[in-house]
Amino acid sequence: MPKENSSYILLVEDEDAIRLTLRDFLHKKGYNVLVASDGVSAIKHLLDHEIGMIITDYRMQTLGGDYWIKFLHRYCSDKKIIITSGFLRPEFSIPFEVLYKPFDFLLIAERIEEHLNN
Predict the structure, then answer these.
(1) Beta partners for 85?
(2) Cα angle at 11 between 37 and 113, to 5 degrees?
(3) Which pLDDT value is given to residue 6?
C-alpha cells in the first residue's frame, strides 16, 4: 500500500496511451502521480514538486536517451528511478532498474512498492 506523504511519482512517457493509462492505474492504487511527455517537461515537475520516484521511458523525442539517463544519474541520485524501454537491451549499461516493454502494470506497482519500502 502507498505511504501517506506529499511526494509524487513522476511518470515520464512520450506515448499518450501508456502515460495516461498508467497514470490512472497508479492513481487507483493510491499514488500521487505527475506526468510528463519528455525530459524537459519532467525537469519542470522536478523543480516545482517534491518527487520521490521517477518512472521514465528511455527513448523520447525531446531530452531522452543517453542524455536523459546522464541527467538523472547526476541530478536525481536521491530519487528512486525505474527506466522503461522497448529499445534498450540487457547488454546496455544503465545505472537504474530497467523494465522492458511491453510490461504489466501490476509488475510496475510491485516494483514501486519495493523501491518505496527500501
Answers:
(1) 100
(2) 170
(3) 54
